[in-house]
Amino acid sequence: xxxxxxSGATGWLIAGLLGIxxxxxxxxxxxxxQLSDSKAQVARSEQRAEILLExxxxxxxQLETLSLVLAVRxxxxxRDGQLLDLIRTAASNLERDDAETADxxxxxxxxxxxxxxxDLTADAVDGAGDGESGRAQPPAxxxxxxxxxxxx
Length: 152
Hints:
- By secondary structure, the protein is mainly α.
- The protein contains four helices and no strands.
- The chain has helices at 2-97, 99-106, 111-126, 147-151.
- α1 packs across α2.
C-alpha cells in the first residue's frame, strides 16, 4: 500500500517541489533586484554627499578668505581713522596757533568746493556700486573766491 501510495504521490511530490523551486527562484530574483536598486540608491546618495561636502569645503574656504579680507579692511579703516584724527588735531592746532590760518579758515568756501564736498558725502552715504561709487570728482575749475566776490 505504501508503494502504491508512493508511486501515485511521486508525480504530485515532484510537481510540488518544482512549484516551490520556481517560487523560490522568483523570490530570489525579486530580492536581487531590490538589492541592486538599493545599492544604486546608496551610490547616488554617496555621490550627492561628496558633492555637498566639496561645496561645504569651498564655502568654508570662501568664508575664511572673506574673513581675512575683512580683518585687513578693518585694520586699514582703524589706521585711516587714527590718521584722520591726527590730521584733524594738527589742523585744529594750526588754526588755533596761527592767526593767518585762523583768518583763512573763517572765510566762506567757494561754491564749487561746497558742491564737491556735498557730492563727496552723498557718494559716501550711497556707498553701493562699483569701485568709483565713493569718490566725488574734484571741481573742473576751482573758483578763485567766494560766490559773493565773483558776483560783484
